[in-house]
Structures are given as C-alpha cells and as structure tokens.
C-alpha cells in the first residue's frame, strides 16, 4: 500500500482503456472516502505528544480533516501516527502494532526523532522508524508546529487520493510473524 | 466495604438469602478451598482465578510508554510490576559527547511540558561549579519563564486527569490555556515547547516590546479558564468519587519513598525548595506553599490548582519588580560576545571561536544543583574534568520515586483506581527515562 | 551549610569516613568506605540531630583510568533540619559490589537498579536486582566510558532504506 502506484502501459488496448477508466473512477471514489475518514492510532511516546495533543484540540482542530477519532486498537485504525522517539526497546512493539493493522494502512512519522532519529544518535535510539516500518509522510520538526502537522496530513490525503487501486487485487496476503520480518516490506 | 459478610445490592446478607450466590455457605476466604459443597449448581459461587493483564507500552492511559503488568483478582490488583525504558534516549551519554551549551536542547526534552525549568536547573548546577553570578534581570527572566512553564505543566496534568476520567471538556480548556501561554513563550524564546532559553551565565534573549503587558492579559485569560476547570472538576461527584481516597500515601511513607514536590506536599510535608533553599530571586516574592492532608489523588489535584494560583501571584510580582539590566554575564569565557565585537575585534572573534568549537571551560570538580521543578526536586549532578564537555551529567528526575512507588500505591486497590493515581503523580516519560 | 552533619559523621565513624571536605557552593561531602556505607546511612537517617529522612539521589561516575574506577555518590537531604550531605564511595572494578541501602530508604530502589544497568555496579541485598532502562538482551553497560556512543544492538532486523541520503560523517549507515 505504501508505494503501489500503477504504471501507465505504453500500448493500451480498448479493453485496457475502458478498464483503466473504470479503475480510475473507483480509485477516485475510494481515495475520497479513505482520505476524509482517517482513524489514527496515535503511537505517542515523547515530547511530540504534546504537540499531538494540541493538534487534536480545539484551536488547531484535526477534526475538520476527518482524522479526529483516535482508535486505540490497531485493528480498528488505518493511520499509524508514530509520534516521538522510538528507541530500540520500543522497536519490536512498533513492528507488532504495524503488523496488526489491516490494509489499507498508512504511516506518518511525526517529528524528527521518528523521521530520522533526531539528535539522539546513540546506542538507544532507532535512527528513524523507516528502518522498522515503511513510512508515507515525514513531518520534521522538534516538535513540529501544529500547522506543519496539518500540512503533513493534507499531504497524506493527497497521496491517498492519488493512489491507484486495481479492480481485482492480486497482491499476496501478508504473512505475520518471523517470515514477515525477513521479507522486504 | 466489609469483605467478611457479603452483601447484596440492598444490603441484605447474601448468605441468608436463598438463591443468591453463596447462600448457605460460609464466608469465602480468598485462596482457600471451599469446605462445604453447595446444594445445587445454581447456588454454587463462580470460580475465579488470578488474571495477568499487560497494560502495554503503547497504551492511552500510560502517559507515553510504560509497561505495567498487573495481576488481577477480579478488579483488585494483587501484584504489579512496572517496566520502563521504552523511551530511554541516552541523555546522559549524549551530553558527555557535546559541549556544555549544546546540552541545553537535551535538557529541554527531559520534562518536556516544563522545559525551561530543566534548562534553568542545569544552568544553575553548572554556574555553581563555575562560581558564576548571574545578573539580576537574567534571574528575573528565568523565574518568569519557569513559572509560566510550571503553570503549563499543571494545566497539562489537570487536563489529562480530567480526560482520562471522562471529562473531555476540561482537557480542551486546559490545552487552550496552555496554547495561549505557549504563544507568549514563542514570542520570547522562539519555540513553543522545547525552548532552549537559558544559557550558562544568563538567558538567551531579552523580552520583546510590549511582551509583559501581553503576558499579563494572557494570564488573566488563563486564570479565567483555570477557574472554569476548577468549577467543573473540584466539586464534581464523579471526579470526587474516583479521586478521593484512592492512591493514598502517608506522610512518613512519602518521605521514605523519596517523593518531592506537589506529591510530597499533598501528603502533608511542607517541603518546598523555593522556601527552604531559595535560589534565583525567589526570596523576594510573597507566596504560599499549599500543603495537603490526605495524600490521595484529590489532594494532589488540588495542589496543582492551588500552585497555579501561587505561580500567577509570583509572575505578577516579578513583572512589577523586574528592572532593566544585562541578560547574560559579561565574561567572554562563558558568554558569547555581542556580534559587533565578534566581527570587529580580534578578541571577540577568538572568544566566539573558542566558545563554539571547544565549549565553556568549566573548572574541574563536581557539584549538585537542585531546583524545585513542577514535579519535585530536579537535581543535576555535574562532574567536570576541566574541559569543554561534561564528564558526567547525572539527573535526579523528580518523577522517578513517584513512579517507582506506583505498585506500592496500587496493590490491594481497584484497577480503575490505577488511572487517577497514574495521572496525579505526573509521570513525564522524558525525565523518567532520560 | 551542613558542617554539623559532616562533623558528627566524622566523629562517629572515624575509620569509615575519610577526606571530608567542603565542596563548591557550600556542599559538604565526605568519602566513605564501601563496606560501611549501610551503617553510615542508617546513622544519618536515625540520628535526631541530622534526620536525613528523604530518600537520597544515588548515582555513579566512571573515572576510567583511575583505580578504583567507579564512584557511587549519595546526595542526602533532610526535610526536618534542612541539611544536605554528599557521600562518595569508591568502588573498584574488580570488586564491583556494595551493600544496598534499600533497607534504610525504600526509595533508592530504582536508583540502585539504574547504577547496575548503566555501570554494572551490584548492590547486595537489593530486593529486585534487574535492569531498569535497557532491555534484557542488551550486552554491556552503556554509561561506562569504554562503551561506544553509537553501538546500537537492534532487536528488530532493520530494513534497508536506500532513498535517504545520510551524508558523510560519523552517522553513516549505522
């Protein structure tokens, strides 16, 4: 889901063209529905959590983007917002939460510690959560201003809108457990 | 509730009433087998066993990342084990590898709801080792920003406590009040949250024009919001039922466990470092130290509300008393020279170069600097080997003893009492896990 | 500030306490022999003139190159008499054990676990001697001076991240 954009073929048959048009309509509809109903799983760890609380509150309201309701169970969420520093001890837990979420799912790296480790380049911190889970949008800042966070969410919404969807999804089902850890995501 | 004679909802004795669970049987004793077999299956009491529940690291009520493994007997916690370390970012080791001034951003992110107090605490510890005297205006600015961040910390706690007990409105009001204060601090320091404001020898920059009047008006609005929060929570039946009598810590017990700050004062010990060992300019202000009596969650919550009032009083007095002056010590061995001198004179350029590249040369030795942070005694144990980098920077996190005492406070009580207890001790992940 | 405390201590334990000095900023400090630290702490807590009742801040310092290598520092405070005392205990690397003071104050529990986790200093008689902040699979003690700053021991195999340019410098690929 993270980078599944359709490649436009060089030669199209009429059947492909018709199917492409239909798929395009479905994609637009699905994209519209998904981007305005994001259920976030706030994986809050550190200082960025304070800015997350601000973004979710009355002044910089994230409810107007449709992303208001945090779902504290990964089964019910589709947007994993990793807020704050993830250290080596927390890494397996992040991986597990990510694997427990159902497709389609997106990941936002909120803050510079989640994007690249921040200035904690030491024995304890994972240098960016993209070493553990695939990330869709990186929001830098230490902590990012709420306006930056809203910009990041709008960027994610644009990405969701532009994602392609096949009519029949022939992607193999994901396998959780040790096989998934060794497989390239 | 008396656990010897089981009672039904109307207060009847369930052993006498036929048909109720336990009718005709002797009073159940936990952990022992039942001696008499019940007459029929319908009268037999339900079997129960201990359940081990993992309140995992990624949990909404665990204030960041702490793992609590509780063993439950029904809803009563019989045993509890806390696992921390899920936010350990290597603060002490990182600080050993950067210069003294570069440590300030690391200290910001310890207690991230009241960052300036960490900055000021660290600066005071290093200035103690350097034997530096800070100019008066800088002391006033440090006190003003510390107290503003203390109000922010208490607002966050009150809001989080309300939210976790179901009062979402209180959370929104307190975040709004906190946002207003952060706007003022962003005008002063440049950042809302992690301010990086104090420097060794003073503060980083002076107040902009009109800032004091604006902040006074902001404080008035924060006071109005705080009074509204107070009105919503303090006499609220649900809030009182959940916080009164839960998480009780006695006075001697709190001292022995190492509590400091509002949690210690809520248990009855009037120990506040701003009065006992005044630092900066705290001895020039008139303020009271609220002291509680029961040591339960309600007292800790009331302490925060009252301390916000006292911080407000300190701020207004500080605004009235602060006079013009220098904001950082005029010694080029510790403070960066002003830019015209850096570009104009050779001594200025050299001083700037040495301070930036090698760091401040703090004389060799060790010192323990302590301040009264929003959560308790924040201590920095600083060891220097004479170079530009700290040799050791030890942190006494105020939240640590309180967090370590959570299993002690929760054993034998309901699982739902764990939530307000966890809220009221103000565990901030950044300082607890360094 | 707390001269009376140090004087009383030296008088009571002349063989265990040595090198009492006044540190920077008026702190009163003394060195204590490591096998007597429990008695000294108990005296400091129970003596009615001193009453160091608040659980102290215990930390350790690694003086690599000196022998004894480690030093455990106890910062005691009394809320009744408003006095502060610092005790320093030198611990050699070869015999990295000292008695635990959790029987005197329960609050030093986590501080001693922290010293064990970060420096490898063991405390005899501690009720729960396990690592505090690092995970159990971690090998080594991070705050020792010979532990490299960036030596990560990952728990989850890390993905390859090719499209981010890390740039030259010590950050590199690890």
Question: Could you describe the 3D structure shown?
Answer:
The complex is a heterotrimer of chains A (185), B (434) and C (174). Chain A has 185 residues and is an alpha/beta fold. Helices cover 36% and strands 10% of the residues of chain A. In chain A, helix 4 (112-116) links the parallel strand 3 (106-110) and strand 4. Chain B is mainly alpha-helical and 434 residues long. Chain B has helices at 91-95, 103-108, 115-130, 136-164, 168-189, 211-233, 237-243, 251-257, 262-266, 273-276, 297-321, 339-344, 346-357, 399-404, 406-410, 418-424, 429-432; strands at residues 51-55, 67-73, 76-83, 198-199, 202-203, 365-372, 377-384, 392-396. The two termini of chain B are 41 Å apart. Chain C has a domain at 3-94: NADH:ubiquinone oxidoreductase Nqo5 subunit (Beta Polymerase, domain 2). Chain C is built from three helices and seven strands, in the order αββαββββαβ. In chain C, strands 1-2-5-4-3 form a five-stranded mixed sheet. In chain C, strands 6-7 form a two-stranded parallel ribbon. In chain C, helix 3 links the parallel strand 6 (97-99) and strand 7 (122-124). Mean pLDDT of chain C is 84; it is low at 170-174. Chain A binds chain B through residues 43-47, 49-51, 53-54, 57-59, 70, 72, 84-85, 87, 89-90, 93-94, 97, 119-120, 122-125, 142-143, 145, and chain B through 56-60, 64-65, 85-90, 93-94, 105-106, 109, 112-113, 156, 171-172, 175-176, 178-179, 192-194, 429-430.
């Amino acid at each position: 889901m993270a980078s599944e954009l359709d490649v436009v073929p060089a030669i199209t048959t009429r059947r492909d063209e018709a199917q492409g048009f239909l798929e395009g309509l479905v994609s637009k509809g699905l994209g519209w529905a998904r981007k305005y109903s994001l259920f976030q799983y706030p994986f809050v760890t550190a200082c960025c959590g304070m800015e997350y609380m601000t973004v979710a509150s009355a002044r910089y309201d994230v409810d107007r983007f449709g992303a208001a309701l945090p779902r504290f169970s990964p089964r019910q969420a589709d947007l994993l917002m990793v807020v704050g520093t993830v250290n080596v001890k927390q890494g397996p837990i992040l991986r597990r939460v990510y694997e427990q979420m159902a497709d389609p799912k997106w990941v936002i790296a909120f803050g510079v510690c989640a994007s690249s480790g921040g200035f904690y380049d030491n024995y304890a911190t994972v240098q960016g959560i993209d070493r553990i889970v695939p990330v869709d949008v990186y929001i830098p800042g230490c902590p990012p201003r709420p306006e930056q966070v809203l910009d990041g969410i709008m960027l994610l919404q644009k990405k969701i809108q532009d994602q392609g969807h096949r009519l029949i999804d022939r992607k193999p089902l994901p396998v959780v457990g040790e096989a998934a850890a060794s497989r390239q995501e | 509730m008396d656990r010897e004679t089981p009672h039904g909802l109307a207060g009847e004795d369930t052993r006498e009433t036929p048909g109720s669970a336990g009718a005709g049987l002797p009073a159940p004793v936990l952990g022992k087998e039942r001696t008499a077999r019940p007459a029929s299956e319908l009268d037999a009491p339900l079997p129960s066993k201990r359940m081990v529940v993992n309140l995992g690291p990624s949990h909404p009520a665990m204030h960041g990342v702490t793992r609590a493994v509780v063993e439950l007997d029904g809803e009563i916690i019989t045993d509890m084990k806390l696992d921390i370390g899920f936010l350990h970012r290597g603060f002490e080791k990182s600080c050993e590898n950067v210069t003294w001034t570069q440590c300030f951003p690391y200290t910001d992110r310890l207690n991230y709801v009241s960052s300036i107090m960490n900055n000021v605490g660290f600066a005071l510890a290093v200035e103690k080792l350097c034997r530096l005297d800070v100019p008066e205006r800088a002391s006033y600015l440090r006190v003003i920003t510390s107290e503003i961040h203390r109000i922010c910390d208490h607002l966050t706690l009150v809001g989080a406590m309300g939210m976790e007990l179901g009062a979402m409105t209180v959370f929104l009001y307190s975040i709004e009040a906190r946002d207003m204060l952060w706007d003022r601090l962003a005008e002063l320091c440049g950042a809302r949250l992690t301010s990086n404001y104090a420097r060794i020898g003073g503060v980083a920059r002076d107040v902009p024009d009109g800032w004091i009047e604006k902040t006074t008006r902001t404080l008035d609005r924060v006071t109005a919001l705080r009074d509204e929060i107070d009105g919503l929570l303090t006499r609220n039946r649900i809030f009182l039922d959940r916080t009164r009598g839960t998480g009780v810590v006695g006075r001697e017990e709190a001292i022995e466990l190492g509590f400091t700050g509002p949690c210690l004062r809520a248990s009855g010990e009037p120990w506040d470092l701003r009065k006992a060992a005044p630092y900066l300019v705290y001895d020039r202000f008139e303020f009271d130290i609220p002291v509680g009596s029961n040591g339960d969650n309600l007292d800790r919550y009331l302490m925060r509300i009252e301390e916000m009032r006292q911080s407000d009083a300190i701020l207004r007095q500080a605004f009235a008393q602060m006079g013009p002056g220098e904001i950082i010590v005029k010694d080029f061995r510790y403070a960066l020279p002003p830019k015209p001198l850096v570009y104009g004179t050779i001594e200025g350029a050299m001083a700037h170069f040495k301070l930036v590249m090698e760091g401040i040369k703090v004389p060799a030795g060790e010192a323990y600097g302590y301040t009264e942070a929003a959560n308790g005694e924040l201590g920095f144990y600083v060891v220097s080997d004479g170079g530009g980098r700290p040799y050791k920077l030890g942190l006494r996190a105020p939240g640590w003893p309180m967090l370590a005492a959570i299993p002690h406070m929760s054993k034998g009580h309901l699982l739902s009492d764990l939530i307000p207890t966890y809220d009221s001790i103000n565990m901030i992940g950044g300082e607890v896990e360094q | 500030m707390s001269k009376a405390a140090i004087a009383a201590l030296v008088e009571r334990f002349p063989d265990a306490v040595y090198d009492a000095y006044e540190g920077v900023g008026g702190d009163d400090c003394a060195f204590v022999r490591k096998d007597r630290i429990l008695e000294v702490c108990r005296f400091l807590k129970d003596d009615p003139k001193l009453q160091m009742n608040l659980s102290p801040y215990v930390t350790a310092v690694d003086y690599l190159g000196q022998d004894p290598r480690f030093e455990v520092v106890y910062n005691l405070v009394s809320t009744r008499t408003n006095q502060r005392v610092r005790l320093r205990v030198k611990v050699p690397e070869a015999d990295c054990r000292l008695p635990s003071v959790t029987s005197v104050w329960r609050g030093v529990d986590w501080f001693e676990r922290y010293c064990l986790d970060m420096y490898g200093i063991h405390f005899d008689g501690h009720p729960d001697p396990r690592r505090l902040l690092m995970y159990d699979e971690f090998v080594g003690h991070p705050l020792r001076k010979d532990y490299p700053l960036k030596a990560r021991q990952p728990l989850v195999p890390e993905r390859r991240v090719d499209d981010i340019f890390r740039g030259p410098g010590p950050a590199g690929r690890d």
